[in-house]
Every structure is written in C-alpha cells, then in structure tokens.
Amino acid sequence: MVPSILFVCLGNICRSPLAEAAFREEARRLKLDAVTDSAGTGNWHIGSPPDPRAQAVALNNGVDISGLRGRQVKPADFRRFTHLVAMDHDNLANLRRIAPPDATAKLSLLLDHVEGRAGQAVADPYYGEDDGFDVTWADVTDGARALAVKLLRHKI
Ligand code: 4NP
Fold it and tell me: pTM of this prediction?
C-alpha cells in the first residue's frame, strides 16, 4: 500500500507546509512513492498561502511552497491517510481529541522518528525572529528524512 502522510501543525502556514515540502524532497530522493498533504488544527488560515518567512526559507533550500493553501484537519483525514504526523504535543493532543471512532491513521510526532529526538516538538516559529524558520527547516528536514527512511523499510 502507498503510504499517505498528513503533516499537522496549528495554523498550517509555517511548520506543516515546510514538513510536507521537506518530506516530498526526501521521498523523491529515496524514490519512495507516497501521498502527502498538510493541515492545521486551527481554522484561522484556511485558504491562506504559507507565511512569507516559511516561503522564503523553503525557497532558500530549493523548494517553492507558494502554491500551498491552508486547510483544517477534518474527521475524514483519520481514515484517508495512513499517518498523521504532528509538529508538537498540543497538535497531537488535539488530533487525539478529535479522532473519530473509526480512525485508522497512525498518530505520531514528527521528531519521534528521529533517533534520539523522540518526544521532542518542532517549535512554533510564528511569533519569533526570522532565523527561527531556519531552525524549523532543519528540524522538519531531520524528521522528514527519518520518516521517509522508516516508510521505505516498512518500519511503521
Ligand atoms: P504553524 O504556526 O502552526 O506552524 O502554522 C502558526 C501560524 C499561525 C498561528 C500560530 C502558529 N496563529 O496563531 O495564527
């Protein structure tokens, strides 16, 4: 079965679009066939493009995310995707809270997949300085690479 991954943060304009972009790059490199998307637990940025700072850091790393648009997680996502991957503990707790009874997707934190970083969060860069987005990019790339390798090896 082709794995399908939904990356989840709060607003779906900073961390999860970057995680989606980083994962797509890793999957392409590894020739891993996968379906990807991202969504937010909040509803403030439905229909919005990624934050300009997220777009800039992605472009600096060779990826154009300007075409992505924010959307909110919905109950059908818990059946449509094989994996829902949250950026932080609040996102994960919210996913557990709204999961429908017939949910089939596996839930995890992105950094759970990185050796030595299980339980760590991808910090929310929204209210911080611009250089916070470089840290976000480094974190989501770490997570995306580890997740892609695990999926390739059928370890999750
Ligand atoms: P994200 O960042 O969850 O990484 O997309 C945020 C974006 C917007 C808000 C909070 C976090 N907000 O409060 O509007």
Answer: 0.98
